[in-house]
User: Fold these one by one.
Assistant:
Number 1:
Amino acid sequence: MTGTDLGMPAFPPFPEAAREAVHDEVLRANLRHATHTIRDKRARAVAELDDWDRLRAAGKAIKDHTLRHLDRYLLQLEAAVTAAGGTVHWAVDADEANRIVTGLVLATGEREVVKVKSMATQETGLNEALEAAGIAAYETDLAELIVQLGHDRPSHILVPAIHRNRGEIRDLFRSEMGRWGRPAPEDLGDDPRELAEAARLHLREKFLRAKVAVSGANFMVAETGTMVVLESEGNGRMCLTLPETLISVVGIEKVVPTFRDLEVFLQTLPRSSTAERMNPYTTMWTGTGTGTGTGEGDGPTAFHLVLLDNGRTDTLADEVGRQALRCIRCSACLNVCPVYERAGGHAYGSVYPGPIGAVLSPQLRGTANPIDATLPYASTLCGACYEVCPVAIDIPEILVHLRERVVQGGPVTREGVRVRIRPAHGHTAERAAMRAARLLLDRPGALRAGERLLSRARRLRPQRLPGPGRAWTDTRALPDVPAESFRDWWARERKAPQK
């Protein structure tokens, strides 16, 4: 049985997808090299700041305050964007967002758009919607271009093509680039500089020809109506300044109250994502042209902002789960996650992979399908994700909260439909095991006797548990039984003479 992501093809549940992924040695090598490199650089960049913990707390406080008063700040943002010459559209779900963007592009008479890397448009499946309307969408972020040329799916928030190595990228450029525009050189090698130059020449003609661009935004400033995009390549700035019409699709949680609030996030986001003190390109724009609404100067003559809900209001209503909306998409949690490192991003069946995807996707889409019902279990609960999160999202807490929701079997409301989830296989046995454990732990004498019996029979320990326990040992090694219990060790040590 499969589920579907918004605008994406069917995927298997996480356990099935992960089981296949862990046997792909090339994938695991690519992920291990990339994630370890990024995490080590990030750790060094963060260590340079003596006030990192205070910045982290400030980011959390700003986000929490904004989410508590989201209605007020969104209306303030709409007024500011409108005053600067822009037009604001409200989209309750992915279909409405896609209809709005498609209509705006068709109204210009154009049949192609260039795109800035945008997770919101991936979430809605915008590229597929535009293609169905006869509009070609060209990704301009280098990693997104690689994914598009490979007819692939992103597998990482920051580095969507992290699952590809240089040789694979070279082969893609040679075979596919000519079908989308300027072909790659026939003698193209796998040196990063050669690959980047081939992509630059391929994209340059699209930048100079395109009249319409589509973007997302890292932040929206309510008091000024300013959109903010952080990037490392400069391709985004070409999209945001050259086309005549700019359409930005942004999740409603990306708003911050004041321009001053950016001071915090412009320090924490680059260090947490690319391990840079400051990202190479920070592009800000307010309305059209120079921001006066006249269309003069740099920038688009027409600007449209599409504010996307798509499950965010439902998530906001959950007191535990709402903290996932603080996410600033830095991807630090992916780079330290032992599960992501082994399974890769595709196993999550969502545009949002890794720990943040395991808590965000089930809330945005509901837990009524096998993919999202299994995502809260795609974690060891080691807590590494919480330790590196620049806005202190307690992902382990949300995972446990969502597991409880799945085990309880609903009810869950999604898109106006009230559904009841059937508890996943094995949860009945799990509840019985927990009840048995409670009875045992309430009786110290029985617990002590059981521990001694296990110690004496430790050589008879099976490799796999029988019955419902077999599912647990299918994916885990059964731990060795110690020669004595901690209780007996402690009693013996306390009786030993002190040195």
Number 2:
Amino acid sequence: MDYVTLNNGVKMPQLGYGVYQTPPEETERCVLAAIKNGYRSIDTAQAYGNEEGVGQAIVKCSLPREELFITTKIWISNAGYEKAKASIEESLKKLKTDYVDLLLIHQPFGDYYGTYRAMEEAYKAGKARAIGVSNFYPDRYIDIAHFAEVVPAVNQVETHVFQQQKVAREYLAKYHTQIMSWGPFAEGKNDFFNTPALKEIGAKYGKSVAQVALRFLLQNGVVVIPKSTHEERMQENFNVFDFVLTDEEMKQIETLDTGKSLFFSHYSPETVEWFMSIV
């Protein structure tokens, strides 16, 4: 396993396991399977509705808590200082742990300044080893990074071969914030798993399109959290440390970048209205 060192000195596995859209009743089984297959970083969120399943797995896996790296995120409905503060306690209770390793603001909406103040307090109290944001585009990221007392350690954003976040990565590096990918396989959009360049490179190494895509992100210094409910896929996604892409292959994959989201834009009024409608 490779690790990245966050801006406060905390070490984080560069490859983790995500439980987005994992049914609550399946989460414990899936997380235990992931841990059995070598994963030590688990990414969940209040909005996923499965923190309890992750908590059960933490208890049942028999590993010392310090060997695991647990991430959760504060949802929009818990935005603001008081609500965020209460929600952090609730998440810790559901996760059956005294602390999380990484605590993020899930979306840049609502009173996220108040949310971040509550997170800074949790950080200082040892309830979070690192704090950061998710889905903050460069403009909002620079804003909060400039005014916050604790510069975000991580920004988790849509990152895959078709959206490589080249501009965002430039600014994150400037402020020493680690980029973390959600949707490393673009959730199959754009016929992802049949991308000719990835298939061609994969054939050379005896690797799948998914493995090549993960390897590309890892070599670009991106933290990845692929998700699967199938153990054989968990194993496949974990088996990406035994080959290295050449400079030429990296450049070839770089040409796939469109610089645009395959999901939604936080700059779009329609997107913002949709988020407000689900709160």
Number 3:
Amino acid sequence: MTTVSLPVRRPRTLAVTPAVVGHRGASGTWPEHTLEAYRAAIAMGADDIELDLVVSADGVLVVRHESDLARTTDIAARPGLAHRRSTRVVDGEEVTGWFAEDLPLSELRTLRVVERMPGLRPASAAHDGRLPVATLDDVLEMVAAESSARGRSIGVMIELKDAAWSASRGLPLDTALVATLRRHGVDTPRSRVTVMSFEPTILQQLAGQVRVPLVQLLDRRDRRPADLAAAGDPRTFGDLASPAGLALVERYADGVGAHHSLVAAEAPGGRGMRPSTLVADAHREWLTVHVWTLRAENHFLPAPFRRGEEAGERPAAHGDLGGFVELLLELGVDGLITDQPDAAVAAREAWLAPVGVRVPA
């Protein structure tokens, strides 16, 4: 196991809590990671937007869920780019596709975005082929304009994807990120920018470089962070989510972003939900807790919140996302990362209404 010397971090707090975060924008309505999806989330009342970053061949930070472009762009229909298709091992898995780090930004700009889940989201798929790939620069400029126009500060939660793998190819994400944040003047604790990753290593590296809050993402308990697995470290996300693990996370991060099953899991047979102690354990370490990803479709909801399945409804039918949001708020989470920010905002306001609390703009 590798021993890492960690800098001491000054605690930072969220500007809005409980916050609603538009996951990849309003990605239940528009193709994910497009400026239109982000603007829609902001119009729906989201306090923050969430985005994922990969890097182009010329070192530009591009907004995509993963470096493989096959599922979210029209690159497969571009004969001129057919020769860029390749097979490689990413995070221990063999992947065949077209990868962002093989294309310069000029070529990435020619692509058009498509819906990742057209069967579940046909309305979003209706926009296929219309919208370009965005960069982090594009998003930060858009957020600054929207914040000014709407008279409220809009947060940006940035997830760094496959950081260790990108670094191994000579394209370190931390270098490009720090330069971009400073160029836009947002590397400050008050900028409403947060940086997240599933990989502890990149967050530990950034802890001494940036002034914005850092969030350790936590996947399901039995899975392992890719960087730790590559280094032969046996720890799982369950280990990081334990009280001892959270005490270590607190040394380099300001919060955790947990898969919702780590906060409340289905009881056996889908009969109710079983809350965990994660929120209390994290708060004891002065770590904030965001939960991901909250989606309205029955396909993604825990069984107690699915609706209409006994009547033959398709998995795309919407269940009781509001009820799930209220449960998580009762458990004390600080942020809700969701594909349907309008539904989450409505549920939050309903939950706050009885005590007359309003979330500050």
Number 4:
Amino acid sequence: MSTFLGMPPFPEAAKRAVADSQLRHNLAGATATIRRKRASVVGELDDWAELREAGAAIKAHTLSHLDTYLERFEAAVTAAGGVVHWARDAEEANRIVVDLVRATGEREVVKVKSMATQEIELNEALGDAGISAWETDLAELIVQLGNDAPSHILVPAIHRNRAEVREIFRREMGGAGVPAPDDLTDEPARLADVARRHLREKFLRAKVAVSGVNFAVADTGTLVVVESEGNGRMCLTLPETLISVVGIEKLVPSWRDLEVFLQLLPRSSTGERMNPYTSTWTGVTPGDGPQSFHVVLLDNGRTNALADEVGRQALRCIRCSACLNVCPVYERTGGHAYGSVYPGPIGAVLTPQLRGTASPVDQALPYASSLCGACYDVCPVAIDIPDLLVHLRTRVVEEHHGVRSRPLDLLMGLASWVLGDARRLAAVQRVASWSRRFIGRRGTIGRLPAPLSRWTDARDAPAPARESFRAWWERTRGGKQP
């Protein structure tokens, strides 16, 4: 499977994505459907606003006392017969998982859909160690067989239509296991049936499974996965060894807290009142399910985000993807343009905190937004993403202040000088109105010469008004200034 390493910054990647009409068509149809379903089921609850506040409060409280809850969780898992491993970064987490799989003597694993394992590129690390990792979520299977990368948090193959999925299955399934029949059509039921047959062989053969989690309960050491297909249930019960990679922000204090999140998550993610499959497991039960259970607690930049008083709210994210489905930028560019396993608005604020802003890709992400605020309106845990985007833009400027920011500094200095004096502002407004005949003949500003062309080439801005408000006021009010 290809990775996000080496991808271009968002402006370059987005330009290519916007030119792909098939991609835009696929995204528009899928996101519109999910938005309608979400709005319908959220509208059924009179206390949705209170649930949202409760979810945000639980997450904020847990993050403020994360050290205490992590220790409590470790003690509970250990008491229940599990083993807890601590991983500072992706390299350490991958090494732990590879060593655990090697210790079983197995050369393959089945996987439950997991953003954390994609984040650390676990599949690639297992492959380098000679271990095959098979994705069992239908959309993840499509992405893996297509040698592709996920483009959505919840529906990673959202950029593919069913005709493309049919071709991927026919071309690739035979090399990875049970092949697709030659007469396969693009009917959804047929595609799902072929995927089920292909995966069933792997479920029944696998001795080791790797999962992520949606929630981890500190008081009891319980892990929770919610899903819609049943593949998670198969991975969590059939293998002899289960390894769960858990971001440290996934903790909630008690079992009762799940009451809030199991209402917020399915409605925000799939537009369902309840997930078809909710699997919970606590340690090891003799004779029932995996008899060897390991939890890998993953940091990988999360404590750095936690140290940022503004940025830490991004760690409240429950990976519902509601912000992606309402984002006008994501709908036109898709997830690949973000250069991260976390696309869309939440990726634009989470990824630069987890990875830092050293690379051009990560520096560009906070600017991949129009700041319309739709993402905040739908977030089930009330993450103020627009505020975070502005905060991270400031951070990018402060951390990388240099030659690239000097033109902007000059422009801002000029703007301050103009706006600081009424006479200077009036003079500029007169010049702008006069220039309309040259730069705005069609009602919008045309292409300006370099370097201003970089701005005009990327947006349609209205031409200056024929008469400024100041000039109108002077003409109609006898020269009196407002």
